[in-house]
Amino acid sequence: MIVVKPVTFNFCETEIDALATAEGRIAVLVPPEGKMDVAARRINRLTKGALARLIEARAAEAKPGQAVTLAFPTGLAAEAVDVVFLARNADVETARKAGVALAKLRGKSALTLCAGSFRKTAQILMGLALRDYEFDDHKSEEAPEDARAVQVMASKPEEVQSEAAPLLAIAEGVFMTRDLTNEPANVLTTTEFANRLVAMKDIGLDVEVLDEDKLTQLGMGALLSVGQGSDSPSKVVVMQWRGGDKDAAPLALVGKGVVFDTGGISLKPAAGMEDMTMDMGGAGVVAGAMRSLALRKAKANVVGLVGLVENMPSGGATRPGDVVTSMKGDTIEVINTDAEGRLVLCDVLHYAQKEFSPAGIIDLATLTGAIIIGLGHDKAGVFSNDDTFCNRFLKAAESENEGAWRMPLGQSYADLLKSRIADMKNTGGRPAGSVTAAEFLHRFIAKGTPWIHLDIAGVASVKADTAFAPKGATGWGVMALNRFVSDHFEKAE
Ligand code: BES
Ligand code: MN
Ligand code: ZN
Asked: Which of 40, 180, 336, 371 has the highest local Cβ count within 10 Å?
């Protein structure tokens, strides 16, 4: 059995006698040429040939991974039989999409999947789990227990289960990210966020919380200036996973965790402001990625750092025109208190380098509205000072179906951040808003340290269903980062 909220997967051999009485829905896999396996043949007999007629009628025009339904079949207790057209050599993406199709069809029904000897059954389960996610913590109507159970029948059930386990560990990380990102700001305060991260000590992560006194002592004046208008204390949380060689330099993941972004004194307009509960999405991805790595016991050293703050207006809040001093020592003129993410990240980025001398850094942030204008909702903006490091990440993202597109950096953009009275200002005006934001961060990266900045404002949470997620938080990036780590940071057995 594998439980990934809200799905429970049970594994068994193909029990054709159980098919007549199975409740909910039954899914069978049929290759495009229409040949039925033993389970399908049994269902066909029980339904007096209805299954074969459906397959014959639909196989020719069916797309790979697509499902067609035999509804209310006579001869079966099940409410429907879903036929998934899937070639034996289907690729990962198609297998996952087949799982998505089943998740959409089943709604809240139980499901029996007759997978036979299909080799990528684990990938079907991954797609199914990713799409079956629901954020219902604040719905008062409770889901009936076990309603979302999936019975997986396969010729080698133990093999399928052991292939599914690491994939579903990754899905659990994705779900953590989605839960955090969907959570409203009155629930997910900086303190609650930190507590949820500390709870990951249970799965073998080393977690340390730096409080405001410590941050003051470290000199994180930029980060602290963002949270100073809020009653919730600012925090930095450091999560370490040490699964690699003792002396191997870690990969550092850094996340923007603004639990709510009102804009501060540069207040945002009321319409749509409720969406700013997702402004901790970068920190959410870092948390979910760390969870995935720990659950599957990755053989790599990875440190995750998140800056948790709330950007509120108050009598004590930072004003436009204030000058703050970062931990690195550079002074920053705050032109717009709504450009707060970079103020948080610059101190955490500096701390990450000073404390861990990482082999590379990836930061994630819902940093700019401008990246939504540029790339919309299916690709994140990618900025980097290192072509090799960057191309490796782009490849990992592509193979996990997470859209990513490289954007430029350059001195002419950096020049837009010149301040009359301080070392830099925190905004560069409207043109190339995402690039000047990235250039701001770039100033805090030591020469020679490979670095990628991911602007995920457009992809972290979306208003329509995506290929692998229902509307709301997507968990974008957890799978790409996990893949990036396994391809480039894990030592061979
Ligand atoms: N959190 C926002 C960016 C954002 C916008 C995320 C929409 C998700 C959806 C960020 O802190 C912000 O307010 N950025 C400003 C920067 C500007 C003041 C230079 C923006 O994009 O308008
Ligand atoms: Mn803002
Ligand atoms: Zn923000």
From this structure: 371
